[in-house]
Amino acid sequence: MMKKTKILIVDDEPQILRALRAGLIAQGYEVVSAADGEEALDKASAELPDAIFLDLNLPKKSGLEVCRELRKWSAAPIIVLSVRDSERDKVTALDLGADDYLTKPFGTDELLARLRVALRHAAAGEGTGEPVLRAGNITIDLARHVVERGGEEVHLTATEYNLLAYLATNAGRVLTHTQIMGHVWGAGYESETQNLRVYISQLRRKLDPDSLQPQMITTEPGIGYRFLIDE
Amino acid sequence: MKLRRFLPAEYRFRWINFLSAVCAVAVTTAVLSLFRNFLSSQVVALLYLLPVMLAATRWGLLPALAASLLSFFAFNFFFLFPTFTFAVGNTDELLALMIFLIVAVIISQAVTSANMHAIQAEAREREATTLYALSRALGEQAGLDETLATVTRMITEAFSIAGCEVLVGTENVMLQSRASFLAAFPLPADPLPAEKHAPGGKQMGIRGEAARLGPIRNLDIPLAARQAAVGVLRLYLREDDASPDATSMRLLTTFAAQAGLYLERSKLAREASRAQLLEESDRLKSALLSSVSHDLRTPLAAIKASATVLLQEDAALDAVTRTDLLSAINEETDRLNRLVGDLLDQSRIEAGALRLTLDWCDMDELIRAVVRRLASLLAVFLVRLQLPADLPLILADYVQVDRVISNLLENAIRFAPPGTAIDIAARAGAGELTVAVTNQGPAIPARLHPYLFDKFYRISEDRSPNMGTGLGLSICKGIVDAHGGRIWVESPVTGDSGTRFAFTLPLPDASGREKDLDDEKNQDTHRG
C-alpha cells in the first residue's frame, strides 16, 4: 500500500482544526495537528510531514518564528493561514520561505488546490520540471528560451523573458515582489517595484491581449504575483 | 521687587545717597569759600540751595533733608558773621538762616514728591502694560501649553526674577507643572519638566536648575478661579531679590486670577468638547448597532437554519436540497465575511487607524483585476473600459484602491438595469489620476448627493442581500481621503439617467519610468 501524504495542521482554533482535518482525511491525506508554536516544531521534527498548514497567530511561539525555525532544517512546503489585512505578515512569512498563503475564511477547494500545487512543486524541485510549460495557448520552452502564443513566436526582451520564466517555473505559487525582483534584477533591486509593475504590464499585453478573461499572471494584492498554468 | 526695578537705583534707601549729599554740600562749601569775598550772604544762601536740589532730585527725601540741614550749618559756620562759629550776629541774619532752612526743606519735599509721583505714574503705566500684555497672551487662540509658556516667560522678564512656573491642580490632586521659564536658560517647552521623566522621580527640575544660579526661594500665588484655586503661580526669587511690594502683589494677584479663569475656561472647553464627542459617538454607535444588528443577524439566521436542517437525523433530504442548503451556508458566510470586513474598515477609518501601504500601482492592472473578479456579476452588462495605454503608475495602497473600485463597480451594478452599459474610465490629468465608474441606471436626485458618502446611508430601503451594507461609499471616501484624493458623484450623466462616481488620486512627481523603458527597448530583443 502506498504511503499516505502526511499533513501537519497548526492552528490554535479547535474548530478550524476539526474542519481541516475532516476535509483533508476525506481526500486521503494523513493528518497530524498542533495547537501552538512549540508543539508545531515538536510535531514537525517527530512526524516529518510532507506539507504544513501554519496559522500565523499562535500562542507560545508566533507563526513567523515557527516558519523561520522550520526552514533551518525542513524543505516541506509551508502554507500560511492568516486573516485579512495582515499582508505584511504574509509577505514576511513568504520571504522567510513559506510557499503560499490562504486568507481566512477560505473554502476547502481552495485549500486543496494550494496544497496540490505546493506538493507538486516540492516533488519537482526548483527548475527541474518540464522543459516546456503550457498555459492556455501560450507555450514557454525553457530549454530554447522561446515563447509562443498560438504557434506564433512572441518577442520578449531579456528582462521580460527572465520575469516570465521565473513566474512560470513557479507556476501556481505566489511570489512576493521581493522574491521576483531579487531573482530577476538581482540583489539590491528588491525595492524597485515601479519597474516590476511596468514589466508585468508589458508581459500581460504581449501574452494576454484579452485582459478581461482570467489571466495567466494574476495579482495578489499587496503580496506579489502568481502564474496560473493548466493543471 | 517691582518698584525696586522701576525706581532709579539712587532712590532706594542707601548710605551712599547720604554720603553723596554730604559731598555735594562739602563741594559747594569749598567752591563758595574761594569766592567768599565777592559773594553776599543772600547769594550764598541761594547757591546753597543747589546741593539740596541735587539731593532731592537724585537721591531722595532723606538725603535732601540731610543736605538742607548740613547746608544750614555750613552757611552759618562758614559765611555768617562771626564766621567759624555757630553764633549768629544779628536778627536779620538769623531770619535769613531760618528762611533758608524752611525753603530748603520745602524744596526737598516738593521735588522728591514730584519725582515720586512721576515714578509712580510710570510704574502704574508699566503695570498696566504688563497686565495688558499678559492678558492678551491669555486671550490668544494658542494652545494651553504654549500660552502658559509665554506667560511664564513674560512674568519672569517683567519682574526680573529667576524664574516662573505654572503648576496646575487642586488640593486633592497633586500639583503638576504645566509650564515654566527660567531666566537665562529657558527650559524646553515640555509640559512636564525634566525631573518628571528622571529616573527615581528625583525632584530636580526648574527649582534645581534655578538654584544653580544661587540660593532660590519660592513665592506661590494661587491661581484663583470662580470656584476654587486651579493651581499655583510659582515665582522663583534670587536671594537678593526683595519680596514683591504691595503694588506688585496686587498686580500678580490680579494676573493670577485671570490666569486661573483662563485655565478653568480651557478646562471647561475641553470637557465640553469631550462631552460633545462622546455624545456624537454614542449617537453613531446606536445608529451602527441598529443598522448592523439586522445585517449581521440575517446571514447568521440563514446559516443556523440551514445547518440545523442538515443535522436533523430524521429529515429525509434529497441530494438537491442538501446541496441547496449547503450553498446557502456557503453564500451567507461570504456575506457575513464581507460585512465584518466593511465594519472593520469603517471603524479603522473613523479611528484614524487606516494605515496605507504605499507602493507603485498600475491602475490599468488594478481595474482589470476588479472587473475580472466581478465577472459573474458583470456578465449581464456591457462593460466598456477606457484605459489609455500611457496611464502613469501611481503611488497608492493597492488593496485599498482595489476596495474603492470594487465598491463603486458593485454599486453601479446594483442600480443599473441589465443589458445596459457600465463604463470604467481612467485618465491622467494635471497632478492627478481620475477614475470614473458610470452606469445607466436611474439618476440620483441632487438633494441626496450630500448624504451619499455618509455611513449607513442607503438610497433604497431594500435590505436584500445584494443591496450592500450602507458602508461602501463611506469607506471609499475614507480611503480616497487618506490618499489625498477627492471623490464625488455626478447624476444624471446623460439626459435624466445615469450616475457617475469618480475619484482622483495624486500622481507622484514625474518618474523615471519612461526612461527605463526606453533603455530596455534599445537592447536587442531576446529571442533565445
Tell me about the biggest sheet of chain A? 5 strands, parallel
- Quickly name the level 1 CATH class of the largest domain in chain A: Alpha Beta
CATH superfamily of the largest domain in chain B: Histidine kinase-like ATPase, C-terminal domain
Structural class of the helix and strand makeup of chain B?
A: alpha+beta
Sheet-strand content of chain A, in percent, reads 15-25%
User: Helicity range of the residues of chain A?
Assistant: 40-55%
Describe this structure as you would to a colleague.
The complex is a heterodimer of chains A (about 230) and B (about 525). Chain A is α/β, with parallel strands linked by helices. In chain A, about 40% of the residues lie in helices and about 20% in strands. In chain A, α4 links the parallel β4 and β5. In chain A, α6 crosses α8. Chain B has four domains: about 130 residues, no CATH class; about 100 residues, GAF domain (Beta-Lactamase), CATH 3.30.450; about 60 residues, Orthogonal Bundle (Helix Hairpins), CATH 1.10.287.130; about 160 residues, Heat Shock Protein 90. Chain B contains 15 helices and eleven strands. In chain B, the strands form three sheets. In chain B, strands 6-8-9-11-10 form a five-stranded mixed sheet. Chain B has a four-stranded antiparallel sheet with strand order 2-1-4-3. A two-stranded antiparallel sheet of chain B has the order 5-7. At the A-B interface, α6 and α8 of A face α10, β5, α11, α13 and α15 of B.
Main attributes of the structure:
A: 231 residues; alpha/beta; Arc Repressor Mutant, subunit A; 2 domains; five-stranded parallel sheet; 8 helices; globular; B: alpha+beta; Beta-Lactamase; Helix Hairpins; 4 domains; rod-shaped; disordered N terminus
